[in-house]
């Protein structure tokens, strides 16, 4: 196999898929770091964001990229609303109760999507988009947009977490919640910010999956395991770890088709997840222990 064939058909698609997983995994890692539970509705929120963008595209006739900010804001608002209505009163209960509640929310969100948009496959645009040739590398514009969006969104998040007052408050809640509360940090605002960021990144993840493939009502559910695998691989609670984990999982999935049938490539995320839990539960960058 030639180098460019390997890059064009496996590595580049792996990087794009990994970028999509990374966007979702960052939200998962933030929720676990600050709220201390696994959010099983994460994938279906990503699907909701993708379909909200579709509604804007079909309703207003605008470019999908123009619809993305609307989807991010709407999904962030939905995420905050879900927390207020369903999760807030469970704060003092065992975390497993909230985890199971999030599974119920996943089913509810998916049902809403199927009722409103149906179960048929949708796309943002019709026709075949041919890749451009960049010194032998064949890359589509939408693939560039996906990777650039990951860099911009995660870079902006890192600046927010390290430079802003509320970003530092979120990091304090992640490191030591009891000490953070004693120092006067507003827990409710930190939780709301967490859901705004996680919901927005969810929407971006679902949108770029739909942009690079197709929109399906179940696509977020199929993304859930790879996103969790990415978060755990990089280290739960570490934003840069989620990005690293997402890229590794995405590239591993695409390269796996060289040795196993393509319909089984999703199993790579499961293998990586089990391996990391057994060998290094803190992840590559030493995040929180599950």
UniProtKB/TrEMBL annotation:
Record field: transmembrane: 6-33, 45-62, 96-117, 144-161, 190-212, 218-236, 266-285
The record's subcellular location field reads: Cell membrane
Checking Pfam families in the record gives: BPD_transp_2 (PF02653)
Report how it sits in the membrane.
Multi-pass membrane protein
Q: Which InterPro entries match?
A: ABC_transp_permease, BCAA_transport_permease
Report whether Transmembrane helix shows up as a keyword of the record.
yes
- UniProt KW keywords: Amino-acid transport, Cell inner membrane, Cell membrane, Membrane, Transmembrane, Transmembrane helix, Transport
Report the sequence similarity comment from the record. Belongs to the binding-protein-dependent transport system permease family. LivHM subfamily.
**Alphabetical list of PANTHER family matching this protein:** BRANCHED-CHAIN AMINO ACID TRANSPORT SYSTEM PERMEASE PROTEIN LIVH, HIGH-AFFINITY BRANCHED-CHAIN AMINO ACID TRANSPORT SYSTEM PERMEASE PROTEIN LIVH
Q: What is this protein called?
A: Branched-chain amino acid ABC transporter permease
Organism expressing this protein natively: Roseibium sediminicola
